[in-house]
Amino acid sequence: MTITHHPEKQQFTTEVEGHTAHIDYELANNVMNITHTIVPEAIGGRGIAGQLMEAALNTAKEKAWKVIPSCSYAAAYIKRHPEFADLLA
């Protein structure tokens, strides 16, 4: 699966079987506020959201951004993956 970062749209996307899944964020002052994680039902249950979240959080880490997990999925993901806890704003 290929995940693409679209900084101009503040979004990470992937396409699976003709369906697009994405994470939306807002960036201000080097703080990434993750606002939505969307995976269409037709491709749900395959770990796609987790792969998108990992890509988003790794990007934040590489760019030295802090993260606000406004999206409930983002908050739960970080709680389950403490290796990303140091990113929390």
Automatic annotation (TrEMBL):
Pfam families: Acetyltransf_CG (PF14542). Signal peptide: none annotated. InterPro entries: Acyl_CoA_acyltransferase, Gcn5-rel_NAT, GNAT_YJDJ. GO terms for molecular function: transferase activity. The keyword Transferase applies. Keywords: Transferase. Residues 4-89 form the N-acetyltransferase domain. Transmembrane segments: none annotated. The keyword Electron transport does not apply. This is N-acetyltransferase. It comes from Pelistega suis.
